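Input.
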Amino acid sequence: MQKQEAELRRFPDLIISTPGRLIDHLRNSKCVDLDNLEILVFDEADKQLELGFESEIKEILQNCSRDRQTLLFSATLNDSVQSLIDLALKKPVRIKINASNSTNDKLTQKMLKIPFENTREASLLAVAAKFYKDKTVIFFKTKKQCHRMAIIFGLFKLSVCELHGNMTQNQRIQAFTDFKEGKYSYLMATDLAARGLDIQGLKAVINYELPTEVSRYIHRVGRTARAGKEGVSLTLGTEQELKSLKKMLKENQDSAMKKFSIPEDILKSYQDKIKGIEREIERVIDEEQAERQLRKAEMEMKKAENLIKFQDDILNKPKKTWFQTNQQRNQIREASKEASLQKKRHL
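Output.
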């Protein structure tokens, strides 16, 4: 916070911030204001509103110069976004970019039917080891499964890096850079962490599970077959899941899906191999957990030392203020959680 405050006092030309942190500085940092702000940008406004940031956005608007230019980017135009437009914009000019609901004709789309759910891991491992050996991104729904498969690939000496929300920003940037530079053959990622990825020469995209929305599927497979180059996508799924995928694509585009198969003996072989290293997988997970706990203990110890060392400064420091009461913040947080759950139920 103090480091950021010092940087803000140097009057940077561009500030990129979350709503909450910006308000924190406006209320609690010295000599920080938006009186001379020329341009205000709200990126992914619909998602910010969905996550419960409406009050924060309104607070920022109240602290800005009236002479500013405001840019608002949103994938959807619902009632909440329209209300924000009415509040934040004067004589708005609307620019609509039609999203592509089809895939590149240079992309070859394939699907692999897995006989049972418990063969999914073995299917992915066999596909990677036998067929897709370089410049491949593999998408997962959860951070837990993403990390588990990264451990499995590592134990099989397959060159892999990860990209998900349990990593720090610096770790994600480093992993992405290393993959782009060819230091790793596989990048395992969740949707959120991999948004906006642009990797030249990406050969293949593999969907470990079926995406819930066709737009998400198109976004994933659109990472390959770019700039006139050919690419391949492969989606793993049960018979019912792949039927859903074909129906989803048929309603949105005219894309042919090719069937991909793995010989039963090879699949059985990789199932047995994964079973054979389960204890090793658990050992790696336990070691990582112990290391996290050790780091946490070290941080707590350092925090306690600083509390003693800087006790006078801490006691004399003015108490932070906020534009909402704790009760209001909790109500907004709960409403946001409920809205998110409602959305998931409709997927």
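The domain at 107-285 is CATH 3.40.50.300 (Rossmann fold).
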